[in-house]
Amino acid sequence: MSGRHIGRRRQRGLSLVAAIFLLTTLASLIALMGRITAVQHTGSALSLQSSRARFAAHSGIEWGRWYLHAKRSCPPATDFAIGRFRVALEHCSAAVVSDGDDRYTRFEIRFGARSSDRRFGDPDYAAHSLRATLLLR
Asked: Contact, 32 vs 88, CB < 8 A?
């Protein structure tokens, strides 16, 4: 009879080791899934911020086009807010070009949008610059 009790004790100890291994494995998988979810969420948030920065810079380009058509000269240094972004004129140049008897003024403008409430290096900082070339008679 004493041989039967020794076998059962070994089985109980082995099942305890298996249960601890199973719990450890499940806990590791749950932690990994949580980390993957957090990384995906961060990636989505950065993508959204990048899109917003691009659209803010595009708004600057649109304003610059309006100004060039209305005034026929480069706009002065411009800085305005759109949502959480500061949009600024980064560059404007004008050159007269001719095509036969036709003369045009070619304007090149570049606007940039940057997060106004974040600094470079912050995890959710976003910036985007766009350039446009316009030919006006």
From this structure: no
Strand partners, 123: none
> Nearest 5°: CA angle at 44, between 41 and 50?
140
The full set of domain ranges for the chain reads 2-136
Any long-range contacts for 26-31 (C-beta under 8 Å, 24+ apart)? none
Q: What's the token pair of residue 99?
A: 């095509």
CB 97 within 8 A of CB 106: yes
The verdict on pTM exceeding 0.85 is no
3-state secondary structure of 87: strand
User: How far apart are the C-alpha atoms of 129 and 87, rounded to whole Å?
Assistant: 9
pLDDT in tens, the chain (137 residues): 555 555 555 556 678 888 899 999 999 999 999 888 888 888 888 889 999 999 999 999 999 999 999 999 999 998 999 999 999 999 999 999 998 889 999 999 999 999 988 888 887 899 999 999 999 98
Q: How buried is residue 104: exposed, middle or buried, by Cβ count under 10 Å (0-12/13-18/19+)?
A: middle
Token readout for 63 is: 């304003």
